[in-house]
Design brief:
Blueprint (H helix, E strand, L loop, with lengths): L1 E3 L2 E5 L1 E6 L1 E2 L2 E2 L7 H12 L3 E9 L3 H19 L17 E4 L23 H10 L4 E6 L6 H10 L3 E4 L6 H10 L3 E2 L16 H7 L4 E5 L7 H11 L4 E4 L11 E5 L2 E5 L5 E3 L12 H12 L3 H8 L1 H6 L8 E7 L2 E9 L2 E4 L3
Parallel strand pairs: 3-6, 6-7, 7-8, 8-9, 9-10, 10-11, 11-12
Antiparallel strand pairs: 1-2, 2-16, 4-5, 13-14, 14-15, 16-17, 17-18
Helix pairs in contact: 1-2, 2-3, 4-5, 8-9
């Protein structure tokens, strides 16, 4: 990072978990390619230059269709389509994150994922995902509680894909076996969990204590209590902590009703995204620039540490090369204001 007065220059922000943004649901097989491009241009205004569109638990056909549609968007937008001229915004789609369907079927750990489509790990299904995604599935979140999960993890890792533990009620031994098989990340640790757990022996403590696991966190002031976030960051260390937004379709939109795959959600006035008609959280409306502000305010991280959690750490965990991506921002009074965003050395915000 470089500083001139209150103006800072940093690597472009990286978000490993974006289910949708700016009114576009990346889980929809029918999301127009132009609209996906528009949502990415809005994302550039938050300092993000690389991200992983995230497809959650759904029917095999819907998940395959969503990945196929996103792969088409990645290629079409990389050709300079959608009116942005020479700046090929498809490059911002670094790879795809498949979160589920191989997660816990239980209430609590399952989160907002539809129970009827939860199913055990299946390597044939993984290869169908890769076929649809044209080889760009780079991150898979699963629960190692399923029989056969260890073999599945070993094979997926051999394919060059990062495996993350999430939405789980796995035992300590199952988590250790998953890590030994190649799992290297915990997905939004502290969320997608039972509301009540044994006080000293549970899957959250096990992942916090495991030095071979990095962990991602949704730091919106909603998903995690302040005390847990502070303790979790101390346990993992800044170098193994990653900020994600877990943003869904209503991020940067007005309150109202929206979709997350096959799930109906509501964005409320307090910026919570919940299942329609209830109070269970279903993703977030968080922006990455706000996540950086929040982790400084809540956990006392320095600006350099907070930015590392949104740049260097996710790049290392998911092997992202973004050497020519850059964001310039004003930092004043604990607030970040994005001034310029560069993708692969080219202006993408403001304008191109």
């Amino acid at each position: 990072m470089k500083c001139s007065g209150n103006i800072w220059t940093a690597p472009g922000f990286i978000d490993l978990q974006v289910n949708g943004f700016a009114g576009v649901d990346y889980n929809s097989p029918d999301a127009p390619l132009e609209e996906i491009g528009r949502s990415i241009r809005v994302m550039f205004s938050t300092g993000v230059t690389r991200f992983f569109p995230t497809v959650i638990t759904g029917s095999p056909e819907r998940m395959w269709g969503a990945l196929r549609n996103l792969a088409a968007a990645r290629e079409w937008l990389s050709e300079g389509a959608a009116g942005i001229g020479q700046a090929a915004i498809g490059q911002a789609i670094e790879g795809f994150h498949v979160e589920g369907p191989h997660i816990s079927p239980d209430d609590g750990p399952r989160g907002a994922h539809p129970r009827e489509w939860v199913r055990p790990p299946d390597l044939d299904e993984f290869y169908r995902w890769q076929e649809a995604a044209r080889g760009h599935v780079r991150l898979v979140t699963l629960s190692p509680e399923w029989p056969g999960a260890t073999r599945y993890i070993e094979q997926v890792v051999k394919e060059g894909v990062v495996v993350s533990i999430g939405h789980t009620r796995a035992t300590s031994q199952q988590i250790r076996d998953a890590v030994s098989a190649g799992a290297t990340l915990s997905t939004h640790l502290g969320n997608g969990a039972n509301p009540m757990l044994p006080k000293t022996a549970n899957y959250i403590w096990e992942q916090l204590a495991e030095e071979r696991l990095s962990a991602s966190f949704i730091v919106d002031g909603i998903h995690l209590p302040d005390a847990f976030l502070c303790a979790a960051l101390r346990a993992k260390g800044i170098e193994r902590s990653v900020l994600v937004t877990d943003a869904v379709m209503p991020a940067m939109c007005a309150p109202g009703f929206y979709e997350l795959g096959e799930v109906q959600v509501e964005l409320r006035d307090d910026r919570r995204v919940v299942l329609r008609g209830g109070d269970r959280l279903a993703g977030s409306s968080l922006r990455m620039d706000q996540a950086i502000e929040n982790v400084m305010r809540i956990a006392g991280a320095s600006l350099e540490e907070a930015v590392a959690m949104a740049t260097l750490n996710p790049a290392r965990v998911c092997r992202v090369s973004n050497h020519e991506d850059e964001v310039k921002f004003l930092f004043e009074g604990g607030t970040i204001q994005i001034i310029e965003t560069h993708l692969d050395g080219r202006f993408v915000f403001p304008g191109a």
